[in-house]
């Protein structure tokens, strides 16, 4: 089935059981994911493509090409045929000829027009070379490395709007945003520091005020600053960013709660991990990556909070989307805490590690309605969910698990549910042709919570360092 036929069928809602159901779910204990021993009997992915080291992913504006951060490089994937995604280009050992190269620890890529931004390393110690690689992807099958902006700090996450790159800066005591012009030779044209904005934050250890991620839309940067909350900055003048609002606790409260043991780096409250707005800029989601601990079992997993920011100076909490259940919410258990997400056309597409991927109707932000939930707890650990063709397909990148390799999944942009590994290990399929989202209650709660989020994708050693609040 070719792209035009496939998308026409999907847009019409004609998801044939033979297509959506025929995609195999890898059996436990089979690292290659073959041969399949079970299939999704209702809603399920259209395709699954092995991409070694996959973490985050973005999709081109036309929905035909996905760009995947792949730890030791990046991979370009043709997703124009939802049933048969194919690798167009794979680039590893980036900048191996440079001193300190190659660039590795690549957990994030961002796309703007024909420019791809590839950053790393995500965490200290993953690479001797740090920085942002600017790639021309006008021909996706032949990416051309145009420039490299070398830094003296690791880059966990970034964003790209037009010719401006926005980089997370976390080194020693510095927790900041760097704004870099990448139109020609990359040059920093602006910066913003939490501590310089309010020196009281300097009394808090660096890790709890980590700038974990940045999202930029229409000249506003949304900064997920972990326990220091989420900050909205006007960056239309990059040389002089100004604060629009802050969602979260004041520095004195955070410091007091750390000292009393009421808060900690690993768990709620706090843990603002990722923040993004819908197309209008009026609805903000803050995802909180968090875990339970023996001392604080209520510390996780974290969900996604929705805020009305139509008046930025007066953000209003509307609802919280709860994470999928897990028998062990600690870092050593089964991760089902919130990770990355995207809004499109009043639908929130979200990833929850082994909790799977979800779609929520957020047309009424006070009552988000779950439309889709697909999970395969033993074999898929989703890092992100991104729209490809609205109303037709979305993609999701999964890290490797002990049973299956890392992969890029292509899903129908439709309603339904299949949750391998939940409900006592049984699948709970719902036909995509007969969605039941309007017939079942949404899995949300609406407490008056503050912002929630956290640092994702760090290894056990790094997490141990974070718990000790050591400086990178």
From TrEMBL:
Signal peptide: none annotated. SUPFAM superfamilies: 3-carboxy-cis,cis-mucoante lactonizing enzyme (SSF75011). Residues 426-448 have a biased composition (Low complexity). InterPro entries: LVIVD (IPR013211). Residues 17-41, 421-448 are annotated as: Disordered. This is LVIVD repeat. It comes from Halolamina pelagica.
